[in-house]
Amino acid sequence: MNNPKPGEWRAEELSQNYIADYKPFNFVDGEGVRCSLYVSGCMFHCAGCYNQATWSFRYGTPYTQELEERIMADLAQPYVQGLTLLGGEPFLNTIFLLPLLKRIRKELPDKDIWSWTGYTWEEMMLET
User: Fold this and answer.
1) 75: how many CB neighbours lie within 10 A of its CB?
2) Quick check: is 78 in a domain?
3) Residue 66's domain is classified under what CATH number?
4) For a disulfide at 86, which of 33, 100, 116, 128, Cβ 3.0-4.6 Å?
5) What is the pTM for the complete model shown?
């Protein structure tokens, strides 16, 4: 298993703005009905990873404005609790995810956002 430490990477150097998949209205990636965005690119390479194809930063299709509009429309449905980010490693794809998350916070502030990551909470809270 690789273990990229916070601050060892720059998202703008790694991220290729690709997603592996988008699955609206599912129940498997968190509580309630969720929309799940699977990003491409991961440096952890965990043993037993069920999604090894997403290790490549160019796997799948490019993230587009059209996809963002679909995500926003899907999230706006009253029965949807929120968005789940996974993949791949979401925190190595902040170039396109941060603008999306800021938009969700502005336009749909009641929706929750979950992220599955290889980083610990303590690592995420480090100031680098």
Assistant:
1) 20
2) yes
3) 3.20.20.70
4) 116
5) 0.91
Element (H, E) at 14: helix 11-14
Length of the chain equals 128
Q: Is 36 exposed, middle or buried (0-12, 13-18, 19+ CB in 10 A)?
A: buried
Strand 18-26 relative to strand 61-62, pairing: antiparallel
**DSSP secondary structure letters along 56-70:** STT-SEE--HHHHHH
**Tens digit of pLDDT for each residue in 74-115?**
999 999 999 999 989 999 999 999 999 999 999 999 999 999
Residues 7-57 pLDDT 10s:
777 777 888 999 999 999 999 999 999 999 999 999 888 888 888 999 999
What is the total count of domains within the chain? 1
The contacts of residue 37 (CB under 8 Å, 6+ apart) are 19, 22, 71, 83, 84, 85, 86
What is the model's pLDDT at position 1? 52
